[in-house]
């Protein structure tokens, strides 16, 4: 039985080939010229895909191992309700008390120890000190991370670290395969990073959100593959096939 990485290699090669051919069709039809397959551009894009697969494959595995699971419908419903009540008076009081617990404690009514009989003063002081230490200094049990927390962390890492890494690797590898010098590749990274990142931020957040909140588990591979073809067409057109 082939390994998961080998299957991903095969799928990536086929999808990159399809996206590059479609990009060539779009580009040549736009120029109203008869279609002629640019074999060199096709091989360059397939090679880029093969080089990038193991990096993303193990990155996704590490990310899933660090933040496992997906948000449930109940967690999404609670999160939506929390957003709706974010600016309510009770929520504002809760936020203030969590941010400034000592101020909240000082604002609470306290017993006047001096007004109590002498034989009860020591007991009241001990009780106050015990409750104070239990409330603010006692270690609290660590709550287990929810599926919503895992989704948010994976979403943020996908839009930031993974986005920057993939864009830089795309510009470097595709121009290296074209035979460009390192000086020119460095210049192209600075020139092309911003427009590709803007395009990715318009596209990838929607894909990530749908993939991890709406699309069923047994349909996520198909959905991700289809979206990968669309992104591959964009990258192929950007690489001037």
UniProtKB/TrEMBL annotation:
Q: Topology in the membrane?
A: Multi-pass membrane protein
Membrane-spanning intervals of the chain = 39-59, 155-178, 221-240
Which InterPro entries does the record associate with it?
Mpv17_PMP22
Keywords in alphabetical order, please.
Membrane, Transmembrane, Transmembrane helix
Q: Which GO cellular component term is one of those annotated? A: peroxisomal membrane
Give the superkingdom in one word.
Answer: Eukaryota
Q: Where in the cell is it found?
A: Membrane
Q: Do the record's keywords include Membrane? A: yes
Q: Which family does it belong to?
A: Belongs to the peroxisomal membrane protein PXMP2/4 family.
This protein is called Mpv17/PMP22 family protein
């Amino acid at each position: 039985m082939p390994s998961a990485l080998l299957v991903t290699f095969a799928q990536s090669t086929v999808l990159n080939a399809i996206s590059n051919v479609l990009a060539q069709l779009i580009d040549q039809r736009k120029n109203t010229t008869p279609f002629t397959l640019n074999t060199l551009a096709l091989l360059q894009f397939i090679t880029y895909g093969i080089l990038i697969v193991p990096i993303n494959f193990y990155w996704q595995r590490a990310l899933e191992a660090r933040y496992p699971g997906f948000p449930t419908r109940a967690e999404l419903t609670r999160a939506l309700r929390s957003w709706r009540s974010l600016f309510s008076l009770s929520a504002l009081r809760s936020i203030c008390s969590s941010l400034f617990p000592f101020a909240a404690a000082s604002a609470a009514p306290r017993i006047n120890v001096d007004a109590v009989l002498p034989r009860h003063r020591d007991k009241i002081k001990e009780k106050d000190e015990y409750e104070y230490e239990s409330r603010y200094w006692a270690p609290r049990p660590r709550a287990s991370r929810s599926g919503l927390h895992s989704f948010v962390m994976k979403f943020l890492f996908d839009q930031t670290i993974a986005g920057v890494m993939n864009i830089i690797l795309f510009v470097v590898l595709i121009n290296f395969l074209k035979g460009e010098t390192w000086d020119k590749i460095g210049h192209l990274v600075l020139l092309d990073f911003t427009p590709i990142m803007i395009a990715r931020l318009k596209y990838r957040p929607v894909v990530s959100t749908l993939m991890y909140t709406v699309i069923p588990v047994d349909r996520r591979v198909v959905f991700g593959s289809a979206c990968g073809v669309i992104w591959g067409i964009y990258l192929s057109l950007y690489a001037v096939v």
